[in-house]
Design brief:
Strand content: under 5%
Oligomer: single chain
CATH superfamily of the largest domain: UbiA prenyltransferase
CATH architecture of the largest domain: Orthogonal Bundle
Number of strands: 0
Number of domains: 2
Structural class: mainly alpha
CATH class of the largest domain: Mainly Alpha
């Protein structure tokens, strides 16, 4: 199979990496950053680190992908295992290098995330529930990265906490949906260990924790009451996600994703007004 540059670039999952970069940039916006170069540097760090994670994940899943995602699996085979690892490490290295220009904390965070992304597929993916925490952290950490670089990090830090709680709940719900596939892959998840209903209750608890903490930006004086009004649709959808977790996990997962996006909209309006 002849590999084109576009095939290699597709391994990065550019849309996912782009959205991760936008998340970090959004945290900068919340933190009153006006330096355009800083926006570009933060976006690049997150994009490259995320891309490295995608490539290394494909490397470890290359045999499964030959069956489930044939093109992706054969791209890895055509590139070669050593070159695939080298590509992932070059992306991690460049992301960490750029983070170093932002300071010690951004560098350490980029390094930590790179390590977690590398060890997730071969090691952490097999640890019940901990894998959910790791994925939720990695997803939410884009806001943490932007927050620690910004001038006023509090709003970004609160967003990181809310995103982490929401994503833990959603990852558990996704595991309930994926029980059959995970069994075939030999992966033990929380629903297999304690049951689907019990897992759905835990997921709902994480959603509710996010709901209870969501007024924090107003309580801490970060945003005005406009934020609370903008937050109402997010809270309503999260309650629905909690309700459907034991009944219809797939629907709960979709609703949770919608609620998280509505939460970002609430933060945006809170910042502007």
């Amino acid at each position: 199979m002849k590999v084109k540059a576009i095939d290699i670039f597709s391994l990065f999952r550019p849309l996912n990496c782009f959205m991760a970069g936008i998340g970090a940039v959004f945290a900068l916006f919340l933190g009153d950053v006006e330096n355009i170069e800083l926006y570009f540097l933060v976006f690049s760090c997150v994009f490259l680190t995320c891309a490295g994670g995608m490539v290394i994940n494909d490397y470890f899943d290359r045999e499964i992908d030959k069956v489930n995602r044939k093109k992706r699996g054969y791209v890895i085979e055509a590139i070669g295992e050593k070159k695939t690892i080298a590509l992932a490490f070059s992306l991690f290295f460049t992301g960490c290098l750029l983070a170093g220009f932002l300071g010690v904390l951004p560098f350490l965070l980029a390094l930590l995330n790179s390590i977690l992304l590398y060890v997730y597929s071969p090691k952490l993916k097999k640890i019940v529930f901990f894998k959910n925490l790791v994925i939720a952290y990695l997803t939410a950490s884009v806001f943490l990265f932007g927050a620690i670089v910004s001038h006023s990090p509090l709003a970004g830090l609160v967003l990181f906490i809310l995103a982490f709680l929401s994503n833990v709940g959603r990852e558990i719900v996704k595991d309930i949906v994926d029980v059959k596939g995970d069994k075939k892959a030999g992966i033990v998840t929380l629903p297999m260990l304690i049951g689907k209903f019990e897992s759905s209750v835990i997921a709902a608890m994480f959603f509710i924790c996010a709901i209870l903490l969501s007024p924090l930006p107003y309580i801490l004086g970060i945003f005005s009451s406009t934020y609370l009004f903008a937050l109402l649709p997010c809270i309503a959808v999260f309650f629905c996600a909690s309700f459907f977790a034991p009944i219809n996990p797939a629907k709960s997962s979709r609703l949770a994703k919608i609620a998280m996006n509505l939460g970002l909209v609430a933060f945006f309006f809170g910042k502007l007004f």
